[in-house]
């Protein structure tokens, strides 16, 4: 074992190439995992389309995206080798054969790491899925390198690898969002904008935390069916109600005219203005992640309603741990496999990314294998 087959993006919006990537030398406190399953999310699709190409400036915690790179930042794998003794987030030793997901490494000594304890905002955070192939830190590969400083979360035996991988992005981000929002009271109504993986996981957590009522707005109908199966009290299909005024009225009618106590915008970032209108005066809104191009326009009047506004950037190790514990202990209440859509081999990564960009997939799984008729890998 000296190399890994990996899907490599060399041009935006183009088929990925299969490369043979040498395995890196394992540094102290680092680990090499065999990929059991990798899942993709909207961020991967946006990167492939060339939308997310720069960090710095207003987002110094984002590393620039340059070609070529190995996509995929949601990975569950089995340890095959380590750079000495490593432990999980509970300080329990790990060994080859253990299944893990990984929180990102950060510097540990800057203002964000030591003072504000917002490690996802560290300017040296080392996230996955957008680095040169030589680093081998993308999930669309047979092996994935977890560099020094990465924090490891053990995956329980009852969690399938594709569910663990999805929890390593969508659900850990949702857990971070709920931490920002604070406790959910039993009299509060929660509105979820969007019913992709973020929105569905947000619904599950809101129900689990005792919200009086959970409303979901999104599309397509198949995702809304999952929302209903997971306990959404009311759903609204965007394809059937195109008028924003009607959608706002729908929310207010279901909340005695006030609006939702809590809003999680898990849809396009441009929906935040609509979400503010759907919030009650004095409510709370969290913008989960980022999507869409161009500036967001918000009426100044919406900023004079006392709504507390939060925004979620990635997550810290504790959120990864909370996410894995959630999917492990809540399986009787939510069929998490409903999130998983089609499976693709490494030579089909671009097909999966295109399907994501066209909303034909919910959470595609990339398996660490190639089809029999796959192109010959680049040496």
Structural description of this entry:
This protein is of the alpha/beta class and 379 residues long. Helices cover 24% and strands 23% of the residues. It has nine helices and 17 strands. Strands 3, 4, 7, 8, 9, 16 and 17 form a seven-stranded mixed sheet that branches. Strands 12-11-10-13-14-15 form a six-stranded parallel sheet, with helices on both faces. The protein has a two-stranded antiparallel sheet with strand order 1-2. α1 (42-48) crosses α9, α3 packs across α4 and α3 (161-181) packs across α8 (317-329).
* SS summary, helix count: 9
How many angstroms separate the termini? Answer: 15 Å
* Rg measurement, Å: 20 Å
Q: Indicate the overall shape.
A: globular
Share of β-strand residues: 15-25%
Largest sheet: 7 strands, mixed
**What structural class should be given to the helix and strand makeup?**
alpha/beta
**SSE ordering:** EEEHEEEEHEEHEHEHEHEHEEHEHE
Please supply descriptive tags for the structure shown above.
6-stranded parallel beta sheet; single chain; 9 helices; 7-stranded mixed beta sheet; alpha/beta; globular; about 375 residues
């Amino acid at each position: 074992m000296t190399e890994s087959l990996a899907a490599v993006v060399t041009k935006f919006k183009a088929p990925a190439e299969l490369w043979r990537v040498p395995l890196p030398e394992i540094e102290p406190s680092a680990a090499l995992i065999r990929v059991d399953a990798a899942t993709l999310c909207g961020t991967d699709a946006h990167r492939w389309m060339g939308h997310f190409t720069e960090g710095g400036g207003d987002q110094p915690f984002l590393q620039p995206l340059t070609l070529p790179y190995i996509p995929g930042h949601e990975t569950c794998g089995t340890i095959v080798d380590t750079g000495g003794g490593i432990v999980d987030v509970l300080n329990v030793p790990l060994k080859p054969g253990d299944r893990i997901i990984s929180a990102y490494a950060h510097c540990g000594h800057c203002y964000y790491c030591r003072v504000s304890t917002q490690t996802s905002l560290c300017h040296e955070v080392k996230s996955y899925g957008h680095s040169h192939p030589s680093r081998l830190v993308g999930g669309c590969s047979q092996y994935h390198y977890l560099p020094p400083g990465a924090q490891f979360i053990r995956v329980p035996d009852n969690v399938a690898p594709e569910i663990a991988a999805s929890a390593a992005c969508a659900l850990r981000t949702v857990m971070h969002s709920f931490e920002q929002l604070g406790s959910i009271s039993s009299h509060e109504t929660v509105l979820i904008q969007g019913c992709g993986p973020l929105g569905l996981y947000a619904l599950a957590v809101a129900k689990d935390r005792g919200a009086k009522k959970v409303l979901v707005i999104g599309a397509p109908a198949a995702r809304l069916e999952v929302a209903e199966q997971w306990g959404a009290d009311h759903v609204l299909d965007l394809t059937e109600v195109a008028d924003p005024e009607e959608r706002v009225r729908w929310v207010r009618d279901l909340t005695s005219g006030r609006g939702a106590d809590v809003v999680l915008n898990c849809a396009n970032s441009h929906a935040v203005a609509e979400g503010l209108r759907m919030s009650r005066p004095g409510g709370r809104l969290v913008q989960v992640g980022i999507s869409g191009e161009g500036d967001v326009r918000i009426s100044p009047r919406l900023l004079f309603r006392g709504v507390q506004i939060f925004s979620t950037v990635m997550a810290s190790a504790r959120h990864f741990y909370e996410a894995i514990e959630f999917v492990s202990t809540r399986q009787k209440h939510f069929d998490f496999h409903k999130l998983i859509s089609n499976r693709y081999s490494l030579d089909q990564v671009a097909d999966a990314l295109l399907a994501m960009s066209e909303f034909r997939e919910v959470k595609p799984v990339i398996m660490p294998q190639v089809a029999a008729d796959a192109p010959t890998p680049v040496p």
